[in-house]
Amino acid sequence: MARAPIGTLDPDATALGSALGEDEARALAELLQALGDPTRLRILSVLGTACVPVGTIVAATGLRQPSVSHHLRVLRDRGIVRAERRGPYVYYCAASEALGAAVAAARALLEDQRLR
Q: pLDDT digit string (tens) for 45-77?
């Protein structure tokens, strides 16, 4: 059986998901918008599952410290990362273990698209 084109309904489909509610869709879009910046994705890839100081992120990405701090603020405001003060330094950590899985899934999707 041929698959229905994306964006059409296949009445014979057995694995249809449930539609997002309006509020959930809006919240998810805001989250994805915060994640949709290349600089923020680079920062998140450095964090992985560790908590790291800004200086480590700067060194790993080659970005300037003010830029890293700005993007960390956006990520913190959206609840994507959290900050922990450790002595004179502030360490940034992924706010959820699901974040690493989400970034890995997005990378796998990108790789899948490249192979087509």
A: 898 888 999 999 999 999 999 999 999 999 999
10 alpha carbon, distance to own chain's centre = 30
Query: Smallest Cα–Cα separation from 45: which of 9, 14, 71, 15?
Result: 71
Q: Could you please state the CATH topology (level 3) that the domain comprising 25-115 is classified under.
A: Arc Repressor Mutant, subunit A (1.10.10)
Angle (nearest 5°) at CA 11 between 106 and 17: 35
Strand partners, 89: 86
Residues 6+ apart with CB under 8 A from 71: 37, 39, 40, 43
Contact between 10 and 4 under an 8 Å Cβ cutoff? The reply is: yes
- The region, left, alpha or beta by phi > 0 then psi within -120 to 50, assigned to residue 79 is left
Q: What is the DSSP letter of 5?
A: P
What is the model's pTM?
A: 0.75
Tell me the domain boundaries of the chain: 25-115
